[in-house]
Amino acid sequence: MFEGMWPMPNGISINSYVVQGEQVALIDLVEDIGDKPLQFERELNSIPLQAEDIDYLIINHMEPDHTSWLPAFFQKNPDLKLYVTAKGADMLKAFCGISENVYIVKTGDSIDLGAGKRLTFYEAPNLHWPETMLTFEESSGILFSCDAFGSYGAIADVIFDDQLSSEQHDFFINEALRYYANIIGGFSMFVEKAIAKLKGLDIKMIAPSHGIVWRENPQEIIDTYLRFAGYMTGPAEPEITIIWSSMYGNTEKVVNKMIQGVRSEGIPVHVHRVPNDHIGFVLASAWKSAGLIIGMPTYEYRMFPPMAWTLDMFGRKKVWNKKVVRFGSFGWSGGAEREMDLLTEKLKWDFQAPIEWQGAPDEMVMERATAASQSLARQIKSDGGA
Ligand code: FEO
Prior knowledge:
Layout: E1 17-20, E2 24-27, H1 36-45, E3 56-58, H2 64-67, H3 70-76, E4 81-84, H4 86-96, E5 102-104, E6 110-114, E7 117-123, E8 133-137, E9 142-146, H5 166-184, H6 188-198, E10 205-208, H7 218-233, E11 237-244, H8 252-264, E12 269-273, H9 279-288, E13 289-295, E14 298-299, E15 302-303, H10 305-316, E16 323-330, H11 336-343, E17 350-351, E18 355-358, H12 363-383
Parallel strand pairs: 2-3, 3-4, 4-5, 9-10, 11-12, 11-13, 13-16, 16-17, 16-18
Antiparallel strand pairs: 1-2, 6-7, 7-8, 8-9, 14-15
Bound molecules: MU-OXO-diiron.
MU-OXO-diiron binds next to helix 2.
């Protein structure tokens, strides 16, 4: 579980980079978990380098997946110079108890490693935390981007984009989407700002701290991230995600009508049941879809609770600007609709009329479901999407 809550069935890589001039810099570190520090040291030794050979540690981002091993590493090399933004320096003290050997940098500052290697820093607030920065090595044109341009998905023997099969390439793009929706999506406006700030740099390679290194086509992952960021302001992809929940099957009976209605218009459809499907996967489908169909029964005058939790998460992660239909049954009184209005009032969603019924759905409900899903799909088609 990334951040203690996001499933990673395919794992994740935590990347750290060595830049060698006359002096040696390490960019980002690893998490102090399991055998990761040992593995890291083995790889460092294979260069060959020891901890005490490192002159500089560049801390692009203070989140513990990149820094929790730092106190132990600093003990091995107390002469290490730590480069970090001002906000990062506060966090370095708070998380690691380290305030010595700290050098605060801002956009445009650089360090010369000798032998033609120079590292220049670019503050990139909220990518992913407020203290984050990116590091650019000028002679090679490598941008060390930490969380930005990253993805889920462990790396085995293949490191670069040009070594991937088509299937592996699609895998990392899909894993980038899920990573983006889970971790970065709520900060999408900062993605666009950071990319604008990088204009003018001759970027030949993007080396994130999660996922593969983009050396054949670094622009692809930049464009992919811009596309993901654009989904927040919409329209997203011309696709529809159906998210549904049911207690005794009366809401469930309508799901197939919704699926068939969308498919009959030739629009791709993703289907998730909550709470059965983890929110991490639901978010990824919803983030990229221009349309949502959300089905849940009323539960004790309010919404079925797992769906309320899902929509609360949509609010936190800024799943904005969607075209939406709601459907669902109730037993003795409605209430789900009222709570849905409350939970989504800041999400800029464009709602069609809801379909709500008491008890089991009759033929008229089924017909309305088909008509509503077809109408939403037609609207998504005519909007065009990303
Ligand atoms: Fe990879 Fe925001 O940490």
